[in-house]
Amino acid sequence: MVPVPADRRRVFSGIQPTADSLHIGNYLGAVRNWVTLQETHDCVYSVVDLHALTVNPNPADILRRTRVTAAQLLAAGVDPDRSILFVQSHVSEHAELTWLLNCVTGFGEAGRMTQFKDKTQKQGSEGANVGLFDYPILQAADILLYDAHAVPVGEDQRQHLELSRDIAIRLNSRLGEGTAIVPEALITAATAKIYDLQNPGAKMSKTGSPTGILELLDEPKVLAKRVKSAVTDTETTIRFDPENKPGVSNLLSIYGALTNRAPGDIAAEYEGKMYGHLKVDLAEVVVETFRPIREGAQALLADPDELDRILARGAERAREIAGPVFRRIASRFGLLAPGTPGTPCTPGTGARSTGAR
Ligand code: TRP
Question: Closest residue (by CA) to atom 11 of ligand 1?
Fold first, then answer.
């Protein structure tokens, strides 16, 4: 095991097990970055199954997807010797710290989260559950439990990160400096936005066209077919021009993101060539980038005992950090530590409340 130098800054991030495969957007926007951060940071990554419960998945789905998500992270290069990879519900301090943080978070403050508002608008407040309201506070608990300095997330998580920071700052001012580390958001530099291959006007997503998405666990044949049947336009020139040529430009963006090149430079190489050439080459790049991840994940899923052992070891290492941090914060709240004979018993100072508020 390669030890992580003690002076490295700590990173925490989480991903929800809500799908049977990660897609290219998860890969470019999160996973690839998580892998790189291992070079410079002390990384803690979690499959956040408790967060996923807020959408009431059926039990068999979340169970399967928890393993499937972890397997893809490992196959993509999250190294369980260098980093900690664990399942959120295996470390009970996440739920426990959420309770403490609930008690210092304003009702209005939580109600202003735009993701919560969007979701309740769609489902109506009768259809939404309390977990959805509490979601960002559980997220704050995830981060604060590991004294994380930095949190790599996409732009859509900016407001949640701001709430985590506000809560940490509040803990320090009410309960004393050093109660929590105030985390910084590492917003993933807008890696080219990826659009639906069949409908390049819309963001690529699970809920878009079924053949407009590229998933890490898709068979090579399927991936190649999707790239080759991507919608383009009736012109014949390959140019990077997202406004007038959204389909072709999307293919160039994907190509560029996967090969770390500028889409415009790639376009220049295809001058005078037909769309078919670009598609054949891009299909190859997609297939070869995803192949080791798919094969690695399949191998891990074929032997879930080994995968479960990796996750159990991750949980054990996570607990070694989360346990003491939880006790530190809980004692600042004035919760009596269990089984510590000798904790002084100071008589009350009268009727006046000396509560944290
Ligand atoms: N809410 C995050 C997302 O949807 C997932 C998440 C949960 C997370 N806990 C976290 C991300 C802690 C970063 C840190 O992407």
Answer: 14
Q: Which pLDDT tens digit goes with each residue over 137-146?
A: 999 999 999 9
Residue 341: what pLDDT? Answer: 75
Sheet holding 84-87, edge to edge: 84-87, 42-47, 10-15, 150-153, 184-187
DSSP symbols for 6-75:
TTPPEEEEEE---SSS-BHHHIIIIIHHHHHHTTTSEEEEEE-HHHHGGG---HHHHHHHHHHHHHHHHH
CA 242 / ligand 1 centre spacing (Å): 30
pLDDT per position as a tens digit, 163-216: 999 999 999 999 999 999 999 999 977 667 899 999 999 999 888 999 999 999
Mutate to test the pocket of ligand 1, among 48, 91, 159, 187 (most ligand atoms within 8 A of CB): 48
Residues 6 or more apart whose Cβ sits within 8 Å of residue 326: 93, 96, 97, 145
Q: How far apart are CA 285 and CA 315, in angstroms?
A: 35
- Which residues does the annotation mark as catalytic? 119, 203, 206
Output the pLDDT for position 349: 61
Taking the model in full, what pTM does it have? 0.93
Decide if pLDDT at 97 tops 50: yes
**206 contacts 213 by C-beta, under 8 angstroms:** yes
Contact by Cβ (8 Å): 246, 193: no
Residues with CB under 6 A from ligand 1: 12-14, 16, 48, 51, 139, 142-143, 151, 153, 157, 160
DSSP secondary structure code for residue 139 in this structure: H
pLDDT reading at 223 higher than 50: yes
Please answer whether residues 11 and 41 qualify as being in contact, where contact means their C-beta atoms are separated by less than 8 angstroms: yes
- pLDDT, tens digit (0-9, with 9 covering 90-100), for 296-316: 999 999 999 999 999 999 999
Helix or strand run (H / E) with residue 327: helix 304-333
